[in-house]
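Quick illustration for those who missed Monday's session on complexes.
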Amino acid sequence: MSQTFTPLSTLGEFGLIQRMSERLAGVARSSRLIEGIGDDAAVYQASEGLLHVITTDALIEGVHFDRTFIPMSFLGYKAISVNVSDVVAMNARPLYATIALGVPRNMSVEMVDSLYDGLQIGCKKYGMELVGGDTSTSHALYISITVVGEVAEQDVVFRRGANVGDFLCVTGDVGGAYAGLKVLLDQRQALKDMGDQYEPDLDAHQYVIQRQLRPHARLDMIEAFKKAGIKPTSMIDISDGIASEVHHIATKSGVGATVRIPALPFDPETRAVADQFMDDIDAYALFGGEDYELLFTVDPSQVALVDALEGCSVIGNIEEATKGIRAYSPDTGLMPLHPSGYQHFNPDSENLDVLGPDHFQDSRS
Ligand SMILES: [Mg+2]
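Prediction with magnesium ion bound:
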């Protein structure tokens, strides 16, 4: 047996995914498979004219969340939302979910009940059913969910469809989840410093905390697209930050892109948090992640429809690949935009110096 020990940090998370998919490459590919590893969800032909999508995402205590700060019902809801978000990013609707749950011995029946209340609220919200799974004991709370969804063949949207000349757009507002994380980490530090004297100070930050602890998947937006006659040419959900997601779309589509910084949509509460911590708010949107909004591109013929749709912003342009991925602001002009949101296994990949190594974000598909 080989004695070589190569640390995972030498690959980084995306490098690891690439390596694993190469190891699976020898397995015969089903003729029904349309998209395998490398998009928000895998896609296969279910029947004539109908595709299914399938995705898995896990939330792990100490990696993605701190039990001190997230109520169990929120955690259940978030576990559903982060999976539905990947389904929605394919322009698909969720149908069924299964769950693999690892429960530590220091959790009570009431806590598990509350977790399931959150799962149920999530399922209701997105019109889907939790239909099975597996439960075991574990050292830390572990929630892995798999969701299957469906989409008509002509409606599916991949990361790879952006064309030169398309407009880059985003739903909702961005950076809020990161602002919420900042507030929670600050409060955790206050709890450590003050002990029994600690009194939570969260009222002014309810929106951003909700963005972090109880995010919604934008199933409503893909329904609004359909109603408005909008079909994105490419789409991805924002789990790792706009910078990373733009890179995924551009790489898969063989194009370049410019993100117009002044066009990034922020909630006033997100601005207030950035001001309070004297942070660059643009970094919250570009590198913070976990907003679970949709980043998408449309053909120029559809940009007026996007402009007319409430809750959508045009934030940039798709350009030739030779131009690379850039950010534009009046202050700095055009600058290269690096993808470095936080990645698992890679200690050098954080570019938000405000967080310690134990913050609760990771890199998701
Ligand atoms: Mg995704």
